[in-house]
Amino acid sequence: MESIFHEKQEGSLCAQHCLNNLLQGEYFSPVELSSIAHQLDEEERMRMAEGGVTSEDYRTFIQQPSGNMDDSGFFSIQVISNALKVWGLELILFNSPEYQRLGIDPINERSFICNYKEHWFTVRKLGKQWFNLNSLLTGPELISDTYLALFLAQLQQEGYSIFVVKGDLPDCEADQLLQMIRVHQMHRPKLIGEELAQMKDQRVQTVDSDEQTLEVNDGPGILDGEEEDLQRALALSRQQIDMEDEEADLRRAIQLSMQGSSRNIPQDVPQTSGAQLSSEELRKRREAYFEKQQPPQQEDPPAQLSHPREAPTTGSRAVGSDTGDTSEEDMLQAAVTMSLETVRNNFITEQKK
Fold first, then answer.
1. Does residue 217 carry a pLDDT above 90?
2. What are phi and psi of 137, to 5 degrees?
3. How far apart are the first and last CA of the chain?
4. 6 part of the active site
């Protein structure tokens, strides 16, 4: 099959592809076919001029576009027929009464040229097998001998004009090779439009498959990573909130402590800063505070009179203490404990509000 020459469709140059596929080589170009078309136009013009250049028919002919070619690349049957005359080949209409009277079996012919709505293509025998060399196909299509007559009949039913190519075709490599071997075709070639559409669908399906694969393979991992980042951010946020709450509670406790301390200061003691008071004044105020906090003492029993306590000569001993060896440090610890108790009570009261 690779040895078979097969031009694929380009633009509207199906007549060129038809001729080259028939002759199995690049024998004609659009320029050469255009030259043949212009030659045919000039011959027709000269025949029309025989009736007079001033005649209505001649003026009408001159104003009309060429019937042998157009700007799209279409060429008429006259152009194809004149191109084949160069090789000594002739076209005969397959369904004409003259040819039908000959009763020739299509299998015994060498090639056909088919036309429908300005599209031309070749059906040719190479070696001992028939091939559809339509330029709209992605490659040559193998046609069995038993199917050839049915294939041509189907074309006629669809409106095709079929021409039998009479004469000796030029030798070609594919014809010589296929005289010795027979080919088998597993799959019929598709139309170029069908192949392009299928390739487009395959590309779309490939893209969709790749996206789905990406979602399946990478999606959960990405989601897990995002979820971990989210959980980490939430944890940090909660820690920050807890720290802010603790700081707020600490500030409130300090504020309440200051308020509680100010409420516990005796009203008759002037509130001056610690930097302005001497150590003696601080001691006196502390002793005065503890004296107010202590309950009224009962008189010592007679048994204790025999062991009188020494009255403190300095502020290092508390007044009215139950134990005889209470030091100033013990009194300070008791004051701190009472202060913390007061702060806790005030804080609980504030929370209940």
1. no
2. -90, 155
3. 99
4. no
Angstrom distance (rounded) from CA 11 to CA 23: 20
Q: Are 94 and 112 in contact (CB under 8 A)?
A: yes
Q: b vs e for 194-204, b when ≥16 Cβ sit within 10 Å of the residue's Cβ?
A: eeeeeeeeeee
Number of domains comprising the chain: 1
Q: Which residue is catalytic, options 82, 119, 132, 346?
A: 119
In a domain, 175, yes or no: yes
Can you give the residue range of the structural domain that contains 102? 14-195
Q: Provide the 10 A C-beta neighbour count for residue 287.
A: 18
Of 14, 18, 21, 114, the active-site residue reads 14
CATH of the domain at 110: 3.90.70.40
Is the full-model pTM beyond 0.85? no
Highest average pLDDT, of 85-94, 231-240, 316-325, comes from 85-94
pLDDT tens, residue by residue, 124-160: 999 999 999 999 999 999 999 999 999 999 999 999 9
DSSP state of 314: S
Contacts of 105 (CB under 8 A, 6+ apart): 149
270 domain-assigned: no
The string of pLDDT tens digits covering residues 2-52 is: 899 999 998 889 999 999 999 999 999 999 999 999 999 999 888 888 878
Question: Over the stretch 65-77, which tens digit does the pLDDT of each residue have?
Answer: 888 888 778 899 9
Tokens of 196: 């392009």
Among candidate residues 68, 115, 132, 134, the one labeled active-site is 134
Separation CA 252–CA 353 (nearest Å): 14
